[in-house]
Specification:
CATH architecture: 3-Layer(aba) Sandwich
Structural class: alpha/beta
CATH class: Alpha Beta
Low-confidence stretches: none
Strand content: 15-25%
Number of domains: 1
CATH superfamily: Zn-dependent exopeptidases
Number of helices: 6
Number of strands: 6
CATH topology: Aminopeptidase
Distance between the termini: 15 Å
Order of helices and strands: EHEHEEHEHEHH
Mean pLDDT: 97
Length: 190
């Protein structure tokens, strides 16, 4: 309660993100999970800012990748009192057997690392998938955010079994609850 959180549902608009074998898009899953998360957090008294709340480009249609990613970072940077930035994605790989979840932070951000670690623990519990670990990366949105930031890869939308889970509203809610628990732990110091 009382904290300000920026949620970034990955992709959207002209960019569907990865697409699963039956056509489930990363953009639709990230938005559904993010909306569930927003609802949980707001009902707990948090202030939530979404980089997008429908299937749109944040910067505008057909922006360059850099323009789109900077527009997402800007939402966080221009949100008064924003404390953390959580970007939500689905993984993809050419081999449909690739599976599991993982979380990322930008190297040299101890608070980002703590956030990514808590998120990783709670997503593993909530989703029950193989845990690929907590990793560092130079993803634009976590590198350029001035606040602690993390990027979660919920599961592989290109894996038939995981695609089916990601398309399920009940599973989406489970993931959102896990992310909310991680954010709660982050602010309570647990």
């Amino acid at each position: 309660s009382g904290h300000s959180i920026v949620i970034d549902p990955g992709h959207g608009g002209s960019d569907t993100g990865a697409v699963g074998p039956t056509g489930v898009t990363e953009a639709s899953v990230t938005l559904a999970v993010s909306k569930d998360l927003q609802s949980i957090l707001e009902n707990s008294g948090a202030r939530v800012t979404m980089t997008r709340d429908k299937d749109v480009d944040v910067y505008g249609p057909y922006a360059s990748d850099r323009q789109e990613l900077q527009a997402r970072v800007n939402v966080g940077e221009y949100t008064p009192g924003a404390e953390i930035f959580v970007s939500i994605h689905c993984n993809a790989f050419s081999n449909p057997a690739s599976n599991g979840m993982e979380t990322y932070y930008y190297a040299g951000s101890p608070r980002g690392e703590r956030l990514a670690t808590l998120l990783n623990e709670e997503l593993e519990k909530a989703g029950g998938l193989f845990n690929r670990g907590v990793k560092t990366a130079n993803f634009y949105v976590i590198k350029h955010s001035s606040m602690p930031a993390t990027l979660a890869e919920l599961a592989f939308v290109t894996n038939p079994k995981e695609e089916q889970l990601l398309a399920s509203p009940a599973y989406q809610m489970k993931l959102a609850e896990g992310i909310a628990r991680a954010i709660s732990r982050y602010f309570s110091g647990n």
